[in-house]
Amino acid sequence: MIQLQIQQIQDKIKLAKERSAASANSVQVIAVTKQLSIEKTQTVIESGLLHLGENRPQSFLEKVEALDKKISWHFIGSLQTRKVRDVIDHINYLHSLDRMSLATEIQKRASQPVRCFIQVNVSGEESKHGLPMQEVQDFINAIKEMDRIVPVGFMTMAPLNASPEAIRIQFKTLRELRDDLIAEKVVGESFTELSMGMSDDYEIAVEEGATYVRIGTALVGSLKE
Ligand SMILES: *Cc1c(COP(=O)(O)O)cnc(C)c1O
Questions:
Q1: How many domains does the chain have?
Q2: Alpha helices, H only, the chain
Q3: Closest-CA residue to 174 (of 154, 193, 188)
Q4: How many CB atoms lie within 10 A of CB 174?
Q5: Within 10 Å of residue 108's Cβ, how many Cβ atoms?
Q6: What separation, in Å, do the N-terminal and C-terminal C-alpha atoms of the chain show?
Q7: Is the CB of 216 under 6 A from ligand 1?
Q8: Residue among 9, 12, 29, 32 whose CB has most ligand 1 atoms within 8 A, to mutate
Q9: In 3D, which of 80, 78, 82 has the Cα closest to residue 34?
Q10: pLDDT average, residue stretch 34-55
Q11: Residue 93 · residue 71 · CB < 8 Å
Q12: Of 36, 53, 187, 190, which residue is 20 to 30 A from 181 by alpha carbon distance?
């Protein structure tokens, strides 16, 4: 079982919150089960983790079909436009809204509103998914009329091999962008969430105001076959 990992991560999150300069946000752990079989994912659910993250449409759909209906499913991978039709109505939170063509397709295919994180490429690194910082505001304005898209906040991934200091600056930059856009009324008060932090950097993310952390290896890595 993974009770020990769960406990350790919850403890570290609690301490990180106490150190945090950001307001006393609540932090939801998403267990990233993308590398686990259906059976092992079932073990995770039995450990009490009900927010699960997946990144491939095919195995996501298989798990939705096979597993408990009370799971909150977080789709965290980049989503190809042509896959939207198959998966969108099963997604509770999409973490990778990063382009207009994807928004348009969701608006067309979803039968109910979908909570979406706008994925931002804070570092400007070329190989990564996510909207460039300077395009975020126009994008938010462009999706305003889309009633199937409920923007709940921002998501980002720190670049591989970045130093802790560099990672911190990126998380902080995203929090400040959120706060600025709320202050300028570009987004509403409900645009509160920050999905940032993975196994190696979730403590930094929580210190900088993360409200969702997406943790795979450190949490469920021991279950991998
Ligand atoms: C795989 C993945 C994670 C989890 O990564 P770990 O380092 O295993 O915690 C988080 N977010 C996204 C988008 C991922 O693809």
A1: 1
A2: 3-19, 38-46, 57-66, 84-87, 100-109, 136-143, 164-183, 202-207, 217-220
A3: 154
A4: 25
A5: 12
A6: 14
A7: yes
A8: 32
A9: 78
A10: 98
A11: no
A12: 53
Strand partners, 30: 214
Tell me the whole-structure pTM to 2 decimals.
0.97
pLDDT digits (tens, 9 = 90+) for 58-94: 999 999 999 999 999 999 999 999 999 999 999 999 9
- C-alpha 45 to ligand 1 mean position (Å): 18
Is the confidence at residue 37, as pLDDT, over 90?
Answer: yes
Are 5 and 219 in contact, with CB atoms under 8 Å apart?
yes
Quote the pLDDT of residue 24: 65
According to DSSP, the β-strands at 131-132 and 114-121 are: parallel
Is residue 213 lining ligand 1, measured as CB closer than 6 Å?
Answer: no
User: 55, 95, 194, 195: which to mutate for ligand 1, most atoms within 8 A of CB?
Assistant: 55
Cα-to-chain-centroid distance, residue 49: 16
Go through the chain and tell me how many residues it has.
225
CATH of the domain at 194: 3.20.20.10
- C-beta of 47 in contact with ligand 1 (< 6 A): no
- Provide the CA 96 distance to its chain's centre, in angstroms: 7
Which of 170, 191, 166 has its CA nearest to residue 181? 191
Please report, to the nearest 10 degrees, the dihedral formed by the alpha carbons of residues 123, 124, 127, 130 taken in order. Answer: 90
